[in-house]
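Q: My labmate handed me this sequence with no annotations at all. I'd like to see what the chain might look like in three dimensions before we decide whether it's worth expressing. Could you predict it?
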Amino acid sequence: MLEDAVKSAWQYGRRFLLNGKVADYIPELSKASPVYLGVCVHTMDGKTVEYGDVDQRFTIQSISKVITLAMALELLGFDKVFSHVMMEPSGDSFNSILKLDTASNRPYNPMINAGAIDVIGLLAPEVSFETLLAFARTICMDDGIELDMDVYRSEAFTGDRNRAIGYLLKSKGVLSGDVLSTVDLYFRMCSLSVTARSLARLGQILANGGVNPVTGERLLSAQTVRTIKTLMLTCGMYDRSGELAVRVGIPSKSGVGGGIMSCVEKCMGIGIYGPSLDEKGNSIGGVYLLEHLSKEMHLHIFDSE
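A: Here is what I predict for the chain of 305 residues:
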């Protein structure tokens, strides 16, 4: 049944690929093929189901925000992190500074750029990029994750808006470290190369409460995982998060590289790659795939069946 449901969802998602557009504001991302769509599902009982372009490496982009938030919560604690960033959906685009400039000195949540840069600012004095890379490999169960230098250079070259966000945070006394080195670390984390399989394994660990289901090793505390999954549900899909919480109801985080990482509690992790994006920056085929799979298998967090 799982194989049929995933295949059907993948086929359904493919119908919408040409309705979207590959990200081009980071020039290197524009080279991706809009017809790629891959899905990988890892279940708690060890089953793996895959269709499409699951071997294709792409950059993690905003899904890295889950990794840096996890590290910050584990290293610095809940109270420290959320004294710098809030936990509220912004309703604005991922790179907006509107509310940061007018409504609050603190970023609205860690899943938008301002919040993620703030979290990176907390981590930067404590950990190196190499430490964060090793952590990403561990919780994605993928030793092949590397820094994609071409995307990193492209991102850094076109990243003036994110540098502006960093300076705005600095001016408000929220970010205390060096702006340029903080934002550079943010660019590096966004430029990690992953696959749909990597994201499914990360989703699997979150779905399993922070425990590696293969080894039994606890990688993240239960509180860290609960916090991350809640923020993924309410803020993880840019300014479509509310709509997709209703339509799909699976905690998910997307990235403009085309990735979506999802976790179904005590059931499965889902990784998707589809670089053709909707108008909000989410994988258009991936969103339709997830909605179809959620309906077919009753995966919505509030399904009563």
